[in-house]
Amino acid sequence: MYLCLYFVLGLLSSKGCFSGDPNPEKVVAFAGENAILPCSLKTSGSDDLPTVEWSKEGLKPNVVFLYRNGFETFEMKNLAFEFRTSLFMREVKNGNFSLRISNLKPSDAGIYQCLIIQGNGSRETTDVQLVVGMTTSV
Ligand SMILES: *[C@@H]1O[C@H](CO)[C@@H](O)[C@H](O)[C@H]1NC(C)=O
Ligand SMILES: *[C@@H]1O[C@H](CO)[C@@H](O)[C@H](O)[C@H]1NC(C)=O
């Protein structure tokens, strides 16, 4: 079954689903608004809390959100994303590690990767492309 995930935020109207390669998924949001980058666990291998690392391609350091032992870990986080990234904590227990990026900047556009490392060592990655549109108001 082809699962179509197309996230539309704000006032943007949906252009419908992508045909072809669904990887990476594409998220479109406007500068100054929030974006939700989807990432969910596909196969649950362990009841232990997984480690979840969201990174951005080409960024140094590339970590934009790191979740370990049930908490956010800040040590490796890129300062450009300080206070701007979070998970939906009520969703985490359902294996949903979608990332919220708030107050989007044009420079946030790019490819993000969600890496989930489960207690049994099993790894899953999800790539998401973020497109940041410019608001035409002002
Ligand atoms: C972890 O558990 C899942 C689900 O039981 C399994 O599919 C996967 O192969 C396991 N990974 C490892 C590294 O054992
Ligand atoms: C994960 O949580 C986010 C935020 O609540 C929600 O928008 C998204 O639909 C959820 N994804 C799944 C697969 O449940």
From TrEMBL:
* PROSITE patterns xref list: IG_LIKE
Enumerate the InterPro entries for this protein: Ig-like_dom, Ig-like_dom_sf, Ig-like_fold, Ig_sub, Ig_V-set, IgSF_BTN/MOG
| Domain Ig-like span(s) in chain numbering | 22-131
An example of a GO molecular function for this protein is: signaling receptor binding
- Looking at the keywords, is Repressor present? no
- The yes or no answer to whether the keyword Ubl conjugation is present is no
Q: Which SUPFAM superfamilies match?
A: Immunoglobulin
SMART domains listed in its UniProt record: IG, IGv
Origin species: Poecilia reticulata (Guppy)
Name under which the protein is recorded? Butyrophilin subfamily 1 member A1-like
GO CC field: external side of plasma membrane
Record's Pfam families? V-set (PF07686)
Q: Name one GO biological process term.
A: T cell receptor signaling pathway
Q: Hey, what's the signal peptide range on this chain?
A: 1-19
Which keywords belong to this entry? Disulfide bond, Glycoprotein, Immunoglobulin domain, Membrane, Signal
What is the annotated localization of this protein? Membrane
